[in-house]
Amino acid sequence: MKVLVPVKRVPDTAGEKKIDPNDNTVDRESVESVLCPVNEFAIEEAVRLKESHDAEVTVLLVGPESAQPIVRKALSYGLDAGLQVTDDAIAGSDALGTARVIAKALEEQEFDLVLFGNQSTDARTCLVPAAVAELLGLPSLTYARHLEIDGGSVTVHREHEEGWDVVTSQLPAVVSVVEAINEPRYPSFKGIMAAKSKPLDVRSLADLGVEPEQVGANGATATMYEFKDRPPKEAGTIVEDDGTGAAAAQLADWMTEKKFV
Amino acid sequence: MSTTAPPTVTFALTEEQQLLRSMVRELLTERVTSARLREVMLGDEGYDAVLWRELADLGLVGLAIPEHLGGGGSGFVEVSIVLEELGRVLAPVPYLSSVVLGATVVATGGSEDQQARVLPDVATGSTRLALAHLDTAGRLTGPPGIRASRVADGWVLEGEAGYVVDGRTATDLVVAATTDDGLELFLVDAEADGVERTDVEVLDATRPMATVGFSGVRVDDANRLTGAEPMAALHAGLQAAVVAIACEQVGGTQRTLEDATAYARDRVQFGRAIGSFQAVKHRLAEMLVAAESARSAAHHAARVLATDERQELAVAAPLAKAYCSEVYEQATGDAIQIFGGIGFTWEHDTHLYFKRAKSTKLLLGDPKHHRSLLGDALGI
Q: Which residues of B touch A192 (CB under 8 A)?
């Protein structure tokens, strides 16, 4: 089977991110760029499909040439090939613009399964996987915390607040995974050394037949006009134990209210 | 004499080396927490076997072992990256003892057959080598504590070897012994009859050492290393280890600098961050300058070792060991001051770094010893 894993370059999740007031986009100079950590779960699932179903896995990245190390990083986990869509016109795209580019790139590929992370750690819109499925007219299975392939179908456990639904679809399909799905492995030294020799195809918007005005800042349906710093953290709730045991009930109520339990 | 510059003068890492570093750092940050380190340090196992297994599976233990012997076939620059990261978290694994000391001596001193017999298992981590070459006084220039005598179909080893790094937990010992015809190197099963291993009390509990006694230990002729000349092979192992320690020290120094700087930014006293006081700020600035110089010295030595420039190595290795030792010791001592009261507590990790700095300063020769080697190499 053939699997495609779209990945994203994001500012380091742990780093302090800044927005450039000149164009209201993330200031890439201010923080290190990394492979989106949520993608690592999709990559791990793809590597498992390589092991169990002899899957051939291609990683897809939409981003500038400088993002190529991120494709190599993804390949170091043992994936087979890379596909990068690079074009100056893509800069400033919103989620739908990005989805358009990914969908066009996928149209040219043969695949049985597309494996997304359910969200990126920078924008956290969760929109791209479903938008790509819609544009391609394919089934969309989101928030997968478990995935099984059986012949021509895929079954996932779709996570929600009260548990999960079991959803089955014919292949090809678009699946987005959540972090509960697996524990990603680390790339091995062999994988790292092999990453550079894996084929990497670089395409432009013209190659894919995407009109530049459909993407980028001009094609975006969402525009950012203003941004503010996050407000300082407010003081938390303190539950005091007065010895009567009432505190336990208060704590339990609070946890239920916040949906921790 | 240092006559030729090494062929590579840039310390920039390749894309693969950067990926290797970030992978190892992520892995070790996740695995070697302060709690885990202390659990291993105070436990009986002597090293973190789970982490060791994982490092081996990722190909990090066999990094420099040739590919046809099951390793990664890389050079010492890659090994130095791993060492720096291990030193950064004080990872309690027998990397220095098995991968650097033991494997280098076998790779140099062993015949092709002996290498093929030992090194694949070193690469998978199932064999853990330890080098026994000192006497119990730990004299660097004296003869080994072990004597080997010829018998009909082999050798008999007698004596006591001191300061054997990871000696109690090793599966196999590489033993330097005096014979009637000079120094010889032997491979000895650590469980062999007559071998007795006792942990000794060490300052740095994250790196155990043992005294290894040999009484009438029989060794087959096949286990006497017959590759390069024994003294040269031992020297190669020790020189690689000296550079390895410098790389570890750089990792520890960098971590110390980062932690102390973060604390100085964070900790408020008299209404302002303590890092704004010159006494603290200048200490950190000096620590940064020293850390950068130490890194240059260690990286240079690692590159020289990787390219096997022997004349330059005679300069670069002792220089790196002498300098990085002093920088690490100073940095960890200063960090204790910057951390103030909390830095004096058992729960805080600074003392672990301080002890590693102290112990590695002496391990395989103190700065004075290495400066004297450097003087000899430079002919001054």
A: 16, 19-20, 23
**Rounded to whole angstroms, how far apart are CA atoms B120 and B49?**
18
Q: What is the CATH number assigned to the segment(s) A2-214?
A: 3.40.50.620
The sign of the dihedral angle between the CA atoms of A113, A117, A118, A123 is negative
What is the chain A residue with the closest CA to B28?
A186
CB A40 within 8 A of CB A72: no
Domains of chain B (ranges, CATH numbers): 15-127 (1.10.540.10), 131-223 (2.40.110.10), 230-378 (1.20.140.10)
The nearest alpha carbon in chain A to B62 belongs to A189
Give the whole-angstrom CA distance, residue A118 versus residue A126: 6
> A-side interface with B, Cβ within 8 Å?
69, 72-73, 76, 186-190, 192-193, 195-196
| CB pair distance less than 8 Å for B15 and A76 | no
Q: DSSP 3-state assignment of A208?
A: helix
State the amino acid at position A190 in one-letter form. Answer: K
User: Which regions of A151-259 does DSSP assign to beta strands (E)?
Assistant: 153-160, 163-170, 173-177, 200-203
Packed helices B367-378 and B310-339: angle between N→C axes, nearest 10 degrees: 150
Residue B46's alpha-carbon distances to A191, B49, B160, B210, B361, in angstroms, are 30, 9, 21, 11, 21
- Write the ipTM: 0.85
Domain ranges of chain A: 2-214, 236-261
Interface touch A73/B26, C-beta < 8 Å = no
Report the gap between the CA of B58 and the closest CA in chain A (Å): 4
The model's pTM: 0.89
Name the residue among B18, B27, B78 with its Cβ closest to that of A186.
B27
Mutation target among B19, B24, B258 for the A interface, most CBs of A within 10 A? B19
Closest chain A CA to residue B79? A189
Closest residue by Cα to residue A171 from A116, A115, A103, A112: A112
* Distance of residue B279 Cα from the nearest chain A Cα, in angstroms: 28
Q: From the CA of A18, how many Å to the nearest CA of chain B? A: 20
User: One digit per residue, pLDDT tens: chain A, 261 residues?
Assistant: 999 999 999 998 888 878 888 877 778 788 888 999 999 999 999 999 999 999 999 999 999 999 999 999 999 999 999 999 999 999 888 899 999 999 999 999 999 999 999 999 888 889 999 999 999 999 999 999 999 999 899 999 999 989 999 999 999 999 999 999 999 999 999 999 999 999 999 999 999 999 999 898 888 888 888 888 888 888 888 888 888 888 888 899 999 988 887
B60 vs chain A: nearest CA distance in angstroms? 7
